[in-house]
Every structure is written in structure tokens, then in C-alpha cells.
Amino acid sequence: MIIGTLLLVGILFFVQVRFEFPLSVAIMICIFVLAAVFWVAEPIPGYATSILVIFLEIIFFANPIGIPGFAFSQNKNPSIAIFLSSLADSSIILFLGGFVLAKACVKTGLDRFFANRIIRKFGVKSHQVLLGFMFTTGFISMWMSNTATTSMMIALSFPLLQILPEKEPFRKALILGIPFAANIGGVGTPIGSPPNIIAMGILRQQGIIIPFGTWMLFAVPLVVVLILFAWFLLLKLFPQKDSLDLVVEFQEPEGGAKSFSFRVTSIIFLGTVVLWFTENLHGVSAGVVALLPLILFPTFGILNEKDINSLDWSVLILIAGGIGIGVGFQQSGMGPWFSGILKPITKPEYAVNVLFFFVF
Questions:
Q1: SS (H, E, C) 301-333
Q2: Residues 142-177: pLDDT tens digits?
């Protein structure tokens, strides 16, 4: 923390003296750089860094203790609630709903049910099984975290990997194909990956609202194309001399699709997805819809207190820090100031260069 404080003061002094930025912009740059360094180096947990970001924004921008010279926006500082709202942003609630859905699917075996039905449709040849695994992983990753999906699908693939020779190229293709597909599939829905939620939250602050269904209409075709490309690339990198016949069957929970918990989970899952996808028709925001699984699963006894406590709450706080950065950009005036700098390079060809820069 001492090093972080010295880093913050040093950056503030350098930025102010060297570039003569407005004080609020200089402070926001310092907070942003400090957060980036802490998130990468992790001298403290990532979620603690997110809370630190919100705390610093409150101290410097809301200025509750009346620090001289820190009065912004025509001597009227933003309220503390504006910065604390990052912790309860509708995007956070949306991601929480996704966590609850994923937890219920894993507990009742709905994830393995989907995996069995989807993979079988692709055939028994090794290249078909690989494509089946990748599309199944991509589909599940739309609703669960990429890491959790990868862990689950690799665990499910272990029995298959054990019967294959060690030098069989299909083994490497499958082990690589699953995480590739999980990362690609995470783009498909707003709840598929934390960066999606952070982007939606920051855009919402700017008055740009992207409905759940609209996101999927643009993202799902992209997911399909990218998974096909990754599958084709893996087949070329790990060519197989002889095509193998493989039968994939994952063990499903006792009772299967006939159990009460399975049926209730299926209905709640499909109902939630339909309500998300038809947001433009009924007008209820995706964040509000995400509260339904959080209410219904404990009500029907699908999830208990232990299940709720085991959710990745630290990830939600981490996301809140990203949204808090966006709030800070807006309240400090850094957003408009930064937009003015980028205005000369807003042509499409520059946008493509920026995209490749952030990807790589």
C-alpha cells in the first residue's frame, strides 16, 4: 500500500507538471494507472483493488472531507452515491443472475444433459467429436464463466482422453479446442464473460443501452464463425492419419430429466433466457430479469444457502471496479477530454488498428 501511495503521488506530480492536465483528469489517470498495476501485480487481491478504486474516487471527486482545491464541476462535487452505485449496477446483477443459473445447471446436471444431446448430433468420427465438443463448450460458455466451462468440459473429456494413445494428435486438438471454444463462446451473451458486463455498464452510463437479445443477434453468428475457424485450424495443426470412431456419453445425475429439480431448473433457465432475449418486447431490463433465478431457485429448494455463499462474489466486486473506472472517467471529465484527443483518429481504419492492439 505504501508503494501504491508513492506511485499515485509520483504519477500525479509527473502528469500535472509535464502535461498540464486539469487536476481532476490527472487524478483519474493516476487512479487508473494504479488500478492497472495492482490488478496485474496483485500486491493485494483484485477485488480489494476494485474497492480501492471506488474509495479513491469518493475521496478525491465526491470530496466528503473537504480537501482544498478538489472542487470540480463548477465547485459542485458529485455525490458519494454515484460512485457507490458501481457496486450495485444492473450489469452486476445481470452477471449475478448468470452465476446462479450456472450453479443450478451444474447441481442438477442440466449442463451434462445439454452436452450429451449436442455432441451426439455431430457424429462419432474424431473430427466430428472435436467440433461437437467445441460447439458444446461454446454454448455452455455463453451462460457460465469461461474458466468454469473449461474446467468442466476438460473433466468430462478425461475418460475419452484415457483410451487414446499418448501420441494421438486428437488429444492435443481436444485439449486446446475446449479452452479456445470457451473463450470464443463467452462473447455470445452479455453474461458470458466479465469484460462484456463491464462494457455494457460503461456504455449504459453514456446513455447507450444494448438489449440482451440485440447483443446475441450480433455476437452468436460471430461465435459460430470463430469456432469453425478454430476447429479448422486445429485439424490442420494436428492432422490425424486415421479417423477414429468415438462414442461420447457423459454420466447424468440419478433421475435424469424426470427429476423435479431438473425440470424446475430447465423451466427457470429457458424462461430467463427467453425474457432476456425479448427485452425489447416487454420492457423489463435484463438486470431485473436476472433477479428471478436468484429468487426462484432457493424458493424451490434447488439452491441452498451454501450454494449461494459459494458463488464468485469476489468476481462481482472485481467487475464493479471496472465499472467504477468508467464512472470516474465520466465524473472527472476525463471521458470528454480523452474523446477530444481521439477525435482525429476515429476513421474506420484506425478503429481496426485499435481493435487489434487491445486483442493482442
A1: CCCCHHHHHCCCHHHHHHHHHHHHHHHHHHHHC
A2: 888 787 788 778 777 776 776 677 777 788 888 889
* Residue in the block written with cell 452515491: 81
Q: What is the dihedral of CA 184, 187, 191, 196, to 10 degrees?
A: 130
C-alpha cell at 295: 429468487
Q: Alpha-carbon distance 99 to 229, whole Å?
A: 29
Hey, which residues does 125 pair with through a beta bridge?
A: 245
- Which of the four pLDDT bands, split at 50, 70 and 90, describes residue 351? low
Rounded Cα–Cα distance for residues 4 and 34 (Å): 7
Local confidence band at 69 (pLDDT 50, 70, 90 cut-offs): low
Q: What is the pLDDT of residue 9?
A: 63
Q: Which of 248, 255, 262, 333 is nearest to 300 (CA)?
A: 262
Please give the Cα distance from 31 to 248 (Å, whole number): 50
Q: In b/e form, how buried is each residue of 36-62, taking b as 16+ CB within 10 angstroms?
A: ebbbeeeeeebbbbbbbbbebbbbbbb
Residue environment code for 251-290, b if the CB has 16+ CB neighbours within 10 A, otherwise e: ebeeeeeeeebbebbbebbeebbebbbebeeeeebbbebb
DSSP string, 145-158: -HHHHHHHHHHHHH
Q: What is the pLDDT of residue 338?
A: 65
Question: Side chain identity at 202, as an amino acid letter?
Answer: I
Q: Report the 10 Å Cβ neighbour count for 74.
A: 5
Task: Count the alpha carbons within 13 Å of 199 in the hemisphere toward its beta carbon.
Answer: 13
pTM of structure: 0.72
Picking from 314, 283, 242, the residue whose alpha carbon sits closest to that of residue 92 is 314
Q: Is the dihedral of CA 307, 309, 314, 319 positive or negative?
A: positive
Report, as an integer, the average pLDDT of 69-89: 76
